[in-house]
Design a protein that fits this description.
With 614 residues, the protein is of the alpha/beta class. It has three domains: 319 residues, ABC transporter transmembrane region fold, CATH 1.20.1560; 172 residues, 3-Layer(aba) Sandwich (Rossmann fold), CATH 3.40.50; 70 residues, P-loop containing nucleotide triphosphate hydrolases (Rossmann fold, 3-Layer(aba) Sandwich). The protein is built from 19 helices and ten strands. A six-stranded mixed β-sheet has the order 6-7-8-3-9-10, sandwiched between helices. The protein has a four-stranded antiparallel β-sheet with strand order 2-1-4-5, covered by helices on one side. Helix 8 runs antiparallel to helix 9.
């Protein structure tokens, strides 16, 4: 006789007063320029000695560049006076030596600057890549199923690259130019107030123009970066699904989709580049204007005898150096804003809170009796489409329980909630009386061995993939687990045996071989709780027969939850729970449920009929 369905007691399970949607994505964080500077400045502080050397090198090189024209001025004044005495000749030689010494000092300072920034940027990029990976990988399951893997990969790489670009711009372009500009204005002002003030006003106008257009140009840069990431994501999605494209003759269709994304990128890029060209045109006019203006002023003051020929050399030296650096800055500003746009994409991920987190002070899960209890669990992605409603289920320690029901009934959701890939919307899930939301995620998942319906493997060797179940295992232990899962049969036929690389996501193996590797991994893990989600679905009849003994060994002494449709698996369970529309509609043993003539009997009849016909 079928057992009556009695809800488990839930007096210790407080309900959420206002259930939230599990699919409700947090608002996209607003990333400001100072947020990126704050992140990168924190990285620079870790390597302050290198940064100091970069600073001092840049400062030394520019000071040498500012002082050198002063001696060049004296040199040309002496030469302009015509052939002189040996004392004048000696003075010229001395000036040449001083100019040479300043050049060498500037060269040494630049080498210090360059050597230091190479080490600073390489260490910073390594740290930022590691930090970005650590935070990214901590995001929830929902986050990853909502984003392209290729796009996330590109965001991490661009985030570290943006640090290099911004540091290059600040320490190799902006800061040196600022030092040179202040020095040139100061020297020129001391020589002639009017010319010095004119250059200072021009520089102020040039900087104001740059700041203004930078503000206007940034949205174009962000749009181009987002279009670039979308293009990369679309490409990665197509490459990873190449087999599906080929089987469904989708090459032309996918080509059209990709060309559409590329066209969006092209338009965003053209808008950005056209804006750059307009800015370059204005900058060119500004440079021509100040050059002609200062030359004209110098001629007027020379006519009045207020400046010398050497002053012409001084002015031109400063203008040529300043124009060279400002032109370089104009070229770098585009890269600078591209870098900010790249950094923004990753910062949005870094600023977004993790969907599933450990509570403050969460302790490790302690597994003693291996009992699992779902108490008034509620879950939905959208509030008007509940998946589980007041779901109550208790799995006794050591019990082997099967979840059956039609597709979409909520069976896999139950296992994902147990693994805390999602947080429940209401109610609670307990293991040995401990709310899994209050223990660390690592300890929870260490206690559960999970074999999914479609296992995905690393592009690593078979030895490494199996060892992932217990990374401290010896080679002998890995091989023993592989034998129990009947992996040995196909591994022995491979030229490189356990050193064979399985390809991205394990594509070099058949579905059944991947499944057996996943089972071997679970055998090696030897966790007290075992969850099998259609774990034998990819196995042929011969492979299934081989692996049933391994599964029986694996299940020994564990609490087991199995999602299965295969008759051989269901019949051997201690308890069967039938789920429909997120509710438990029946439970009992195989014989009891068949006698009930309900949904289970219907599912069994459909499958058994097909089985017998086969």
């Amino acid at each position: 006789m079928t057992k009556k369905i009695t809800p488990s007691p839930a007096e210790s399970a407080p309900k959420d007063p206002a259930p939230k949607s599990a699919a409700a994505a947090p608002a996209k964080p607003l990333i400001r320029t100072r947020d990126i500077f704050r992140m990168y400045a924190g990285e620079v502080r870790k390597h302050w000695v290198l940064f100091t050397l970069v600073f001092m090198g840049a400062l030394g090189a520019q000071i040498a560049g500012i002082i050198s024209p002063l001696y060049m001025k004296e040199l040309f004044n002496a030469v302009a006076a015509g052939p002189g005495t040996p004392a004048v000749f000696q003075k010229l030689i001395t000036l040449v030596i001083i100019i040479a010494a300043l050049s060498i000092v500037g060269w040494i300072a630049q080498r210090v600057q360059t050597y230091s920034i190479i080490h600073l940027e390489s260490r910073g990029m390594a740290d930022l890549s590691a930090s970005a990976f650590d935070y990214l990988i901590g995001h929830s399951y929902q986050f990853f199923v909502s984003h392209f893997g290729g796009t996330l990969t590109r965001r991490v790489s661009k985030f570290a690259g943006a640090f290099e670009t911004i540091m290059d711009n600040v320490m190799l372009a902006f800061f040196p130019t600022a030092v040179f500009a202040v020095g040139a204005v100061t020297v020129l002002f001391l020589r002639n107030h009017v010319l010095g003030v004119a250059l200072a006003v021009w520089i102020a106008c040039f900087i104001a123009f740059q700041i203004y257009v930078a503000h206007l140009r940034r949205p174009l840069r962000v749009a181009r970066s987002e279009a670039d990431s979308k293009m990369t994501g679309t490409l990665a999605d197509a490459i990873s699904n190449q087999n599906t494209i080929a089987l469904f003759s989708g090459s032309a269709y996918e080509g059209g989709l990709f060309r559409g994304v590329v066209e969006l990128w092209r338009k965003a890029t053209m808008r950005s580049w056209n804006a750059d060209e307009l800015i370059w045109s204005v900058q060119g006019i500004l440079i021509v204007g100040i050059n002609i203006g200062l030359l004209y002023g110098a001629v007027v003051y020379w006519q009045k005898g207020l400046i010398t020929v050497g002053d012409f050399v001084l002015i031109q030296s400063y203008l040529i150096g300043l124009f060279s650096q400002l032109t370089g800055i104009s070229m770098q500003i585009r890269r600078f804003h591209d870098a900010f746009a790249d950094a923004v994409e990753m910062m949005e991920i870094l600023e977004a809170p993790h969907g599933v987190t450990d509570r403050p002070g969460a302790e490790a899960l302690r597994v003693t009796n291996r009992e699992i209890a779902f108490r008034d669990v509620q879950f939905h992605f959208y509030e008007d489409k509940p998946i589980l409603r007041n779901f109550n289920l208790t799995v006794r320690g050591g019990e082997k329980l099967a979840l059956v029901g039609p597709s979409g009934a909520g069976k896999t959701t139950v296992t994902k909630l147990l693994l805390r890939l999602y947080d429940v919307v209401g109610g609670r899930i307990e293991i040995d009386g401990q709310d899994i939301a209050g223990v660390t995620q690592d300890s929870l998942r260490e206690a559960i061995a999970f074999v999914p319906q479609e296992p995905i493997l690393f592009h690593r060797t078979l030895m490494e993939n199996i060892r992932y179940g217990r990374r401290s295992a010896t080679d002998e232990e890995v091989m023993e687990a592989a034998k129990k899962a009947h992996c040995q049969e196909f591994i022995e036929g491979l030229p490189e045996k356990y050193d064979t690389f399985v390809g991205e996501r394990g594509v070099k193996l058949s579905g059944g071989e991947r499944q057996r590797v996943a089972i071997a991994r679970a055998i090696l893990k030897d966790a007290p709780i075992l969850v099998l989600d259609e774990a034998t679905s990819s196995l042929d009849s011969e492979s299934e027969a081989l692996i049933q003994d391994a599964l029986r060994t694996l299940m020994e002494g564990k609490t087991v939850i199995v999602i299965a449709h295969r008759l051989s698996t269901i019949m051997k369970m201690d308890h069967i729970v039938v789920i429909e529309h997120g509710d438990i509609v029946a439970q009992g043993t195989h014989k009891e449920l068949l006698a009930d003539n309900g949904l289970y009997h219907k599912l069994w009849s459909i499958q058994a009929g097909g089985f017998h016909q086969a």
